[in-house]
Design goal:
By secondary structure, the chain is an alpha/beta fold. It folds into two domains: 4-132, Rossmann fold; 151-298, Rossmann fold (3-Layer(aba) Sandwich). Helices cover 36% and strands 20% of the residues. It contains 13 helices and 14 strands. The chain has helices spanning 13-18, 20-26, 38-43, 58-66, 80-88, 117-132, 151-163, 191-200, 214-220, 232-240, 251-258, 272-275, 294-298, and strands spanning 4-8, 31-36, 50-53, 72-75, 92-96, 107-109, 171-174, 180-181, 184-185, 205-209, 225-228, 244-248, 263-267, 282-286. The chain has a six-stranded parallel beta sheet with strand order 3-2-1-4-5-6, sandwiched between helices. A six-stranded parallel beta sheet has the order 11-10-7-12-13-14, with helices on both faces. The protein has a two-stranded antiparallel ribbon with strand order 8-9. Helix 12 (272-275) links the parallel strand 13 (263-267) and strand 14. Helix 2 (20-26) packs parallel to helix 6, helix 4 crosses helix 5 (80-88) and helix 7 (151-163) crosses helix 10. The longest helix is centred in the middle third of the chain and has 16 residues, at 117-132. The radius of gyration is 20 Å and the shape is globular.
Length: 300
């Protein structure tokens, strides 16, 4: 019987995908019980892992943890609250010693500076492997992130594209990005010019709108077909059928690369050496020194 391991997933899609190689490696010798945001249930449905949505509140998360059949919990989050929830549930948490939570951890690593997020998660896999004696190989870099799509997600993507009259080839543009880096927004300011030039050259463009943001996308991307209300996995399946995806440093960028589509990552404030898509046909353009030109993105 395989050892049982709870894994508290990161709270962001991109981070969860950068952790995917670590999850896949651990799953070779452990039964994984994942705890994550509601979108994680849909996102990883093709991998066959048990996934429980995280309820809101520290004590509610602790109650959810008590329903899972494992004592050890790998924390891919970095917050004090997730370590405290694990202790309240009687679990043995392992993770990075950050945000004053070191005393709560049964096994801890110092935060690795100046490295890619995928390598950070890989080091945590090595840590919990030693605890559970899994005997896995953690030498070298993690393999590329590869997201497995469920057949239902692929069928839903095909139906949405057909209903919108979209046929191959097409380019997906993902211009939205949340969060700031040192007070600067992560969204490239030239997506409208990019969309205009692609449309003028006869290239079909598609965008997927989060709830309530359809008008914003329609105004931002002239000529694009806007698909609405797609679950995360169906979003990924649409991008798997695209000729290429052009995106900010965001969840969609990581999704596109993880399903094997040519992905152009547009950077202007964050560093692709730390948060770029891990593996796949991925081309970062720009970096923390500044945004790229439209020509640079089109030629990538």
């Amino acid at each position: 019987m395989k050892p049982q391991l709870i894994v508290r997933l990161p709270n962001w899609i991109g981070d969860s995908l950068m952790a995917l190689p670590t999850l896949e490696r651990l799953a070779q010798q452990a039964d994984l019980h994942l705890l994550g945001r509601p979108w994680a249930v849909e996102l990883f449905s093709g991998h066959g892992w048990g996934i429980l949505g995280v309820p809101r509140g520290l004590r509610a998360e602790a109650r959810a943890l008590r329903t899972l059949p494992a004592c050890s919990e790998l924390l891919l989050t970095h917050s004090l609250s997730t370590a405290l929830s694990a202790r309240l549930a009687g679990r043995r948490p392992f993770g990075f010693s950050r945000d004053w939570r070191g005393l709560l951890l049964s096994g801890a690593l110092a935060w690795p500076e100046n490295t890619h997020e995928a390598r950070r998660y890989w080091s945590l896999g090595r840590l919990v492997d030693a605890e559970l004696r899994l005997g896995l190989d953690w030498t070298g870099d993690p393999p590329p992130a590869r997201l497995r799509l469920h057949a239902d997600q692929v069928r839903a993507a095909e139906a949405n594209l057909a209903n919108a009259g979209v046929t191959a080839p097409f380019t997906v543009i993902a211009p939205l990005a949340t969060g700031m880096v040192q007070g600067r927004p992560k969204q490239w300011p030239d997506f409208s010019e990019l969309a205009t030039r692609l449309h003028a050259s006869g290239i079909r463009t598609v965008a997927i709108a989060p709830p309530g943001r359809e008008p914003e996308l329609a105004g931002l991307l002239p000529g694009a077909v806007i698909l609405r209300g797609l679950p995360t996995g169906v979003f990924a399946a649409v991008m798997a059928q695209a000729a290429r995806v052009i995106a900010n440093d965001s969840g969609p960028m990581h999704l596109a690369a993880a399903v094997g589509t040519r992905t152009i990552g547009v950077f202007g404030v964050s560093d692709p050496r730390k948060t770029g898509a891990w593996g796949g046909d991925f081309a970062p353009v720009g970096g923390p020194e500044g945004w790229p030109t439209v020509d640079a993105v089109l030629n990538a």
